[in-house]
Amino acid sequence: MDVRKIDVKELLPQVSPFVMVDRIEHFTESEIESSFLVKEENIFIEGDYLSIGGIVENMAQTCALRLGYLSKYINKRDIDLGFIGAVNNCKIEKYPVIGDVLKTCVTVKEEIFNIKLINSEIYVNNELLVSTEMKIAIPNSFN
Question: What does pTM read for this prediction?
């Protein structure tokens, strides 16, 4: 299956205008990469850049894409919901601006029961803009 053809809206609990990912670019069970075009009408735009809230939401929704894909296409069941438990070591080298296409890479580093420790990085044109660690809680999950 070409993951780039999947409608991300079927894997996310968020609806427009809160959808902060456009497409899955790559998927493995421990990694996912999404893309997202930063548009002027985005609700998280401050001036001409994407706010920290938009950045964190993009990373969290990339995690949600992974969980949604695992639920729907691998485990063949309803999509599990996850919740941000913590955001740590967030380093912003540069804020994304209107017109940037974000490539967000999420890697599961550790799994303890229903808690996932993930690393997330956002790139624009192969330049690292943002990196962070997040703890994601997934009640009733087997992913």
Answer: 0.92
